[in-house]
Amino acid sequence: MRLIFISREQYPHGGAASNRHMAFAKGLLELGHQVVFVLLEKQSSDIVDFVYQNIHFKSAVTQEFNNKKIPLSSKLFSYFRLIRNARQIIMTLSEREKFDAIVILSRWNKDIIPFLWISRSLKLKAVHERTEYPFIHCKKTVIGRLSLAINLNLLIPRFDGLFVINHVLEEYFRKYAGANQPIEIINMIVDPSRFKQSAQKRILNYSYITYCGTLNDKKDGVDILLKAYIQVLSRGEIPGSLKLVLIGEYEENSFRESLMQLIENSGYSDNIVFTGKVNRDDMPGYLCHAEALLLARPNSKQAEGGFPTKLGEYLATGKPVILTNTGEVGYFLKDGINAFIAEPGSIESFASKIGLVFSNYEMALEVGRKGELLVQKEFNYFHEALKLEKFIEEL
Fold it and tell me: Taking the model in full, what pTM does it have?
């Protein structure tokens, strides 16, 4: 097959979504398929076309209008030129050899509408990915509600097929899908070869536990994680030399200020390290050499409808993973078997799991190794690429 992916993510050094996309693209390449990403956002590099690990990326962006003072007419002109450029890229690629499908990874109507039309005009299959509830990022305004209604009732049924990340989303989108519209679950996905400890250079020269992702309270519960660490450190349940490394950038300045105040009041500021954003190629080195990996997600609709890519990366290291029981975590992971699972929203519960890991670290490592085996079985990029291959071919 020849596949075109439409995306607004950053590549290759983006976030969880771009890591997921690159993982299943790698699997599709290994299966003998051709994959091209057409990008609708300016990338961190000014290079328009590039190849990374044999995956081809082509940017349709020529100019951006992010300044609020720019007239609406100029922004509209920029948008239509973006779509025109993307269509031209697809048309040029199609002249060499016909493509089989356009896979729309963007959730925005402004992208879905034109690329559904392009797929129909070129007689290509139109496939769509969703990894969260659609109302999570919907503005609570009349326009926001109208946009959501259009997305669910008019656009979703027009795809030849949807693939989602878990059973909850499958059930949710089934209500809006066409009567015969296939929906496939493509699990959270990870490339285990990136996280072989023996292949990763140690970046930090001290003992630490870590979290990676966006530093926030609502989605990933970084404040709960930090409070639990301070609690076990103050009670002497972990070595005093064990640091907490927080990898990522803040989502909001207000949360940064409250976190800084919490750290200052704790008296353990020397034990807590912030790395900022880390390059994708360096991330395995940080994760593989941590003593344990942490994710304290609270209960929320976002947690219910999603499945964190970072969890797969954590498990792939073979190190102990401490997390909360949200969404479909319990569908794959069992407490004390292949992970250490705390109650969401509970500082004490999360702290107790950290303490348990370091009360018998050999036992914890065995649990970590079983988590690594789970990745090979359930979340392996190649296995999920096989499912995606079959799904698209049978549409």
Answer: 0.87
